[in-house]
Design brief:
The protein contains 7 helices and 25 strands. By secondary structure, the protein is mainly beta.
Amino acid sequence: MKFTKQDLLTMLIGLFLFASCKDSNTIGLDLDSEFEIKGVKMDTTTVTSKTLKDDPTSGVGLLRHPLGFLNDDTFGTSSASISMAVGIPGNTYYDFGTNPTIDSAVLVLPYSTQFYGDTTTSNFTIRVNQLTNDISKETSYLTSKDWPAETNVLGSYVGKVKPNTKFKVTDIVTGGPDTLKSVIPQIRIPLEKNYIQNNIINLDSITRSTANNFFKSFRGLKVSPTLTAGKGGIMFMDLYGTEGKLEIYYKKQNKTTVTEKDTVMVAFPIGRNSGPVTTTIAHNYIGDVKTQVEDNNPNSSYSVTYLQALAGLKNKISFPYLKNFLADLKKPEKGGTPNTRVIVNKAELVVDLSNGSDVLPFSASQRLALYRFDIAGQRANVPDNDNSIQGVYNGDPRALGNELLFGGYFDSVNRRYIFTITSYVQDLLDGKTEDYGTFLAPSSLTEFNISPSVTSASRSVINAYKKDALPADKRLRLNIYYTQIN
């Protein structure tokens, strides 16, 4: 078939005319026409929400371990302690030399990121105790487990915490003058010298020959905080890497001069590669928060609901009238037929923060997670955030592939969170999936948490759904931009 120049010109003009046609149902979103969403907007779908206690989760293998105490006038109190095994240097026998005598011992806990609370006026007492049992032999490390410890306090730190402040410590140089060196922000807790002398230095060579033998004798340490002033805070300690340790400074006989002794420092490692490190979290709720978590009536309605990290509180949300919406569109008076379908062009879950709920030092969570239950009651990503993992999992081809596009980050200007859940809502409307449970919960800012977040300590108070709301009313809502096909 041949095209003349006139034929081509006619075809191009036709294409431009079709491209310039305006859909009368176009929703204005202040976007360029190239990106605007086509369809009818519906924002009156009922969205129910209920505050629930979140589940305990594993406290080992965390990117950062929570430690601290919070006193929140809205939520109540929250505390986090750390229990840890102490490894042996190089995972092998360490020789303390001839006639070793301890000079001092210091537990070093390096800070991580995402401190939550008040560092200005809060004072803490952080105590260290020996664990009663060998923590390495346990099979479960849930955050709800309180690890028993001996009553004798091995050491304590009293004062403010400074998670962003570096400082200098003395660096022991064998055979030369000691020097000062700068160290990363950390808590340094002096430990009782005689205890370390008797329970580490004086141990026989067999007990210190392997990590397992050492764990049996020196069962590990528990670090527990209390609040002595202020609203408190939850700090996070970096025990994922190699900076956590028990530093032992001691004197041993010089190899060449019997009358002289050398001062030596040895670091017994603390971290995921040296033995179990886990966290214990406890919440004591008050007021309306306590009322909601103890309310077993599924028909109860509240104007706000509560979200809290540290495996604290989540919200179960649902869209009970979503299928009724489709059935309504099939009615003849709505212009529908029994075969009417809905194409969801975009669906957004909008979560508005309750006014006045984030007074410092308790700022709103910087990020929320949205996930669902599968048919087995296991946590799973919604299709829009079900991204593939190379070589492990194919994911959902409709996944947005970008966490920013999926959403959940706090918009400090509009004071809200928005999730894009277009594919999830389409599947619910089409009956391709059942809503076995959809949930909102706080997430760490730097990593998306589908399991209960314990690497963040933030919380949010959000507005619930409001029937017959005005356009300007702040509320939990589902915006659906759709096209009706008969």
